Amino acid sequence: MNKNPALRSTFLILCMLCLLQTEIKACSGRDTTVFIHQRAVTIHFPDIPVKGCILMLPGWNFSKDKTCQSSTFCEKALKEGFVLICPEMGKSLYASKIYSNTRKDWASYPQLKFITDTLQDYLQRFFHLLNKGERNYIYGISTGARGGALILENTSHIYKCGALLSGDYDQTLDTADNLMKGFYGSYKLFKERWEGTDNPAKNIDRIHVPIYLGYGKNDKVVAPVQSESFMENLGKSKKTAVLSSKENCGHDYAYWGSETDAVLRFFVTMEVSSQKIIQK
Question: Which superfamily is assigned to 40-279 in CATH?
Answer without folding.
Answer: Alpha/Beta hydrolase fold, catalytic domain (3.40.50.1820)
